[in-house]
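Researcher: Next entry in the queue.
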Amino acid sequence: MKHLFILIVAAQLVTVAAAQTKNANTEKTAIVWFAEKVTGDHKGTVNLKSGWIDFTDNRIKGGEFVVDMSTIKDADNNQKLESHLKSEDFFGVEKYPTAKLVLKESTPFEKGTATVKGELTIKDKTEPVEFKAALQNKDDGLWFFTNLTVDRTKYNVRYGSGTFFDNLGDRTIYDEFKLRVSVLVN
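Model: Structure for this entry, 186 residues:
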């Protein structure tokens, strides 16, 4: 009986050791956004507020990343655009100060890439997401990289959408925006 108890405790210790829950480095993590309209495009950044990931047995077992929506910046430092993006027309930052990505699982990372499944919440609207991610193990920790395309209309961000409004002409803003994400966890 004593040997069985020791084996059970040892198995639990191995399971705990295999789990690799790591916190995101918010200073080194980068989130770059790209949005297009009929007459051009914009890009900028937004900051990660907090995050963690459970990376076990070469796959993502869970995680959560919270984005501080009040940090939306335009690369051209266009204050009018930044204010508009923070307004109720777009992300309603006063009422919805954060967005959240919850990671549910991934396939095993083979040759440095995997498919990740999760849920994205913007403006209290949650939708399933699936995307490819790349992994690099560097001296400062694990780096995860992805390009994610988001249909903003699913999150009640409909300003200037040709899907919902007629006769916008050259003022039409495309429904999808893209995120290029580089996350360091250590």
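Model: Strands lie at 21-23, 30-37, 40-56, 59-74, 98-106, 113-122, 125-138, 141-151, 173-185.
Researcher: Noted, moving on.
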